[in-house]
Design brief:
alpha+beta, Tetrahydropterin Synthase, Chain A, 3-stranded antiparallel sheet
């Protein structure tokens, strides 16, 4: 005869198979929750960080200063400046309170700048005074081409500085001004 099943056992086998067995269904989720942070940390510490260190080491080695001077060699020149810094701009001339309207503002906005121009040419102050009107006109021309949108750029001062240097170069027919540093840069 056939064995008789207990009334509670008949539906137990299919229910266990359909439900996935409780804890075993959560194993993939638990594995992901535990393994993803561990793998992320391991990748960051053992793969990405060493590669970044190599790049920074290579970049700093390429930008490292020249070898130290020999023992007893002077570390400054006759003017007290660090030795080996030849060609650095040393002569300065200040241009004060230059004002210009901004482009596209219908003369309601203006810019006022004061800057110091540096050159390695010892005659620069004399050249700047002899050509003062031309240099001021070139500078005002650069400033007048600027719009308010141009000046919202984070690198605006650097761009303006370069444009003024190029304008002065065009006026003087040679590259005399090498660096410009603003002491006043006001937009109203």
């Amino acid at each position: 005869m056939a064995e008789k099943e207990a009334p509670g056992e008949k539906g137990a086998a299919p229910a266990a198979a359909a439900g996935g067995g409780g804890m075993s269904a959560w194993m993939p989720v638990i594995a992901v929750v535990v393994l993803v942070p561990v793998l992320s940390y391991a990748m960051a510490m053992f793969v990405i960080a060493p590669q970044l260190e190599k790049r920074f080491a290579a970049a700093s080695a390429g930008a490292a200063p020249a070898a130290a001077p020999a023992h007893g060699a002077p570390t400054t020149d006759a003017h007290g400046k660090p030795a080996g810094e030849k060609g650095r701009p040393t002569v300065a001339h200040e241009f004060k309170d230059i004002v210009s309207n901004l482009a596209g503002s219908m003369r309601s906005r203006y810019i006022k700048v004061t800057f110091t121009a540096y050159s390695s040419n010892a005659e620069f102050p004399k050249i700047a005074e002899e050509n003062r009107a031309k240099l001021l006109d070139a500078t005002i021309g650069v400033l007048a081409r600027l719009s308010l949108a141009d000046l919202e750029d984070p690198a605006a001062k650097s761009k303006v500085s370069n444009e003024i240097i190029y304008a002065m170069e065009a006026v003087l027919k040679e590259r005399v001004v090498e660096e410009i540093y603003f002491s006043e840069f006001v937009i109203q």
